Amino acid sequence: MSERRHLQVSCALIERDGAVLACRRSATMKMPLKWEFPGGKIEAGESAAECLVREVLEEMAVRVSIIEPLTPVTHDYATFTVTLYPFVCSIEEGEPVLHEHAELLWLPPDELPHLDWCEADFPIIADYRERLSARQKG
Ligand SMILES: Nc1nc2c([nH]c(=O)n2[C@H]2C[C@H](O)[C@@H](COP(=O)(O)OP(=O)(O)OP(=O)(O)O)O2)c(=O)[nH]1
């Protein structure tokens, strides 16, 4: 029996002017038309943070700097498992462009849960919003 695939993926919650960038997967990708954060698979010898910066640059021609890591999330999909390493980021250089995605959207954090996200992303959004409200209180 073949072993179930377990992907290690970095993803970016890019903040700008009180909004966060959401990307919609194209109709031809796996999980078509689901929303996700920009990012991709961690390569051998690469840290999650290095992967994040490389992937966002490749995917949307934007150089990001990391503000803070969020708690990694492991999720079982029907055919594979993914561990997502999320990072809150800001843009250092560039304007996001559509290469692979069907749509890009800047959304206030409170509106993020309303999109049809890849399942693994919901706990990340919850963690992010909790940290934001903690930041505002304290
Ligand atoms: N980039 C990204 N991927 C996510 C998120 N949530 C989530 O479940 N994933 C999954 C979708 C993919 O299976 C995997 C990301 O790998 P990828 O971006 O290299 O994969 P892909 O489907 O675009 O392409 P591929 O496997 O055919 O090479 O992680 C997310 O927020 N961002």
UniProtKB/TrEMBL annotation:
Keyword DNA repair in record: yes
Domain of life of the native organism: Bacteria
Keywords assigned: DNA damage, DNA repair, DNA replication, Hydrolase, Magnesium, Metal-binding, Mutator protein
Domain (Nudix hydrolase): residue spans on this chain: 4-133
Cofactor: Mg(2+)
Catalytic activity: 8-oxo-GTP + H2O = 8-oxo-GMP + diphosphate + H(+); 8-oxo-dGTP + H2O = 8-oxo-dGMP + diphosphate + H(+)
A Gene Ontology molecular function term of the record: 8-oxo-7,8-dihydrodeoxyguanosine triphosphate pyrophosphatase activity
BP-aspect Gene Ontology terms: DNA repair; DNA replication
Xref: Gene3D superfamilies: Nucleoside Triphosphate Pyrophosphohydrolase (3.90.79.10)
Sequence similarity: Belongs to the Nudix hydrolase family.
Protein name according to UniProt: 8-oxo-dGTP diphosphatase
